[in-house]
Amino acid sequence: MFQVIIGTCRAFFIYEDVRQINFTQKILETYRPTPELLQAFKHPNGNYIFKYSCGQAILMLPGFISGHLAAKLLHFPQDGFSRPYQFGIFIWGLIVSLIGLYFLRKILITYFSETATGLTLIIICFGTNFLEYGAITNAMSHNFLFTLYALLIWTTIRFYRKPTFLNAAGIGTFLGLFLMQYEKVIVALSIMGAIGFIQLLYWKFVSMGWIVYSYEEQGFSWLRPHIYDCLFSGRAGWLVYTPVMILSLIGFYPLMTKYRNIGTGLLFFSIAFFYITFAWDIWWYGGSVSQRALVQIYPVLAFPLAAFIQTFTKVNFKAILISFFGLFCVQYNCWMTHNCHYGGLFVAGDMTSEYLKAVILRDKLPPEARKLLDTRKIYKGDIKDEIILLSPIDSVNHFGKVCLRDSLQYSSTKKFKLPSREGWLRASADFYTDNKEWDQWKMTQLVLKYFKDGKELRSDVLRAQRHLDQSVKTHLWLDSKLRNEPDSVELYFWNADSRTAICVDNISLIYHKE
Fold this sequence. Notes:
Layout: H1 2-13, H2 24-31, E1 40-42, E2 48-50, H3 55-59, H4 61-73, H5 83-111, H6 114-127, H7 130-135, H8 142-161, H9 165-174, H10 182-207, H11 227-232, H12 238-241, H13 246-250, H14 252-258, H15 260-279, H16 298-310, H17 317-339, H18 353-359, E3 387-390, H19 392-398, E4 402-404, E5 414-417, E6 422-432, E7 445-452, E8 455-463, E9 474-483, E10 488-494, E11 502-512
């Protein structure tokens, strides 16, 4: 998203090339923000349209402009991506996050004690993925929306206390809110409409139409929202990677007990928000740390969290237990945030439950654990009573020396009848490449595809480049547990549409029992 936002600002203010964005190829070659152009798509009329709407670009303007001026003064390229732009936008994102926390404190202190307010802010800052998206990866929309939510709630509170035109204008600026006073509704709606009209003008300018669905094939599953995956999956489950927010969900009960009107409204809003967010088909939201799309609702969820904390009026066993849980969640979140960057153990968007269990709270990667990003099991015992289905010598006749490249994406395929429907398979080979593929979706795959009565059941894969160093021949293997279903298996290699070359030899496949 950062590249889209900077691209929007750059297209308008630097290159004045909003329709064809011809400057993007040079940016991709110079900075490699993504392997290819993913930030815009080509409209049928020949113009390019940025995928995301322009609201974030507008909010980022102070950081972008300061970076643009600094680039000129410091003699950096004024291209939207050089160091001054990155630094200016990062600092501006951090300022926006702090503004959001400041107003969230003003909101909470209106209803809750200093202690409950302070602990709530600490938990949100250090126990949730707001730490990632507010302090580090803060060029995305989530911390900006977090702050807008806080400002909207604060101006709404002030409006109910004193319904002035200024407060109505604030509500319209931050999101827009329907109220009973007619003249103030006009003010709010007018400002909200004026801000939203900027996006309509952009669509009209580049596509000749007022409305464009810029997400192309991506959409919502309204009848089957991904509730379980979004909450509990190892890939990006919110309560798996941000478990402290369980306290917020529990806190709706004491909130509704003390502030029924507020609690009821926030509960229904939260349910609607969760439903819409979880209905999105790309429910893991790209390389998301926990559920990043929920960060913006934390000012709302701060109410039940503070209400839960305020129920503890004295020190007892329950309070001590909750305190230890909270401290664990803070440690867990800090470990996760560190390993998203320098630690390297958290692989955003690729996490699995099995991999998380293998690395949680560790400071070093256990042997072979990275394979659990692609497969569910690793066999750890001694291999006994093995049956050789394919030896390295025999593989020469079936596969030869496999050298995959841009023009040869698949190896030949070999199918084997399984000796049993229970047990393990281990496929292994030597891999070598002079030009490592870094895009995980284009990494070469060793594939075991299972069949029963000729019908495909499932596949296990190993992405080779996760484990390779460039110009170093490496022996890799994939362990695959049979699940009392298949009667045959197919072995092959796929270059996953990568343009880089990789060679594979010494291929083998063995079957063994537990």
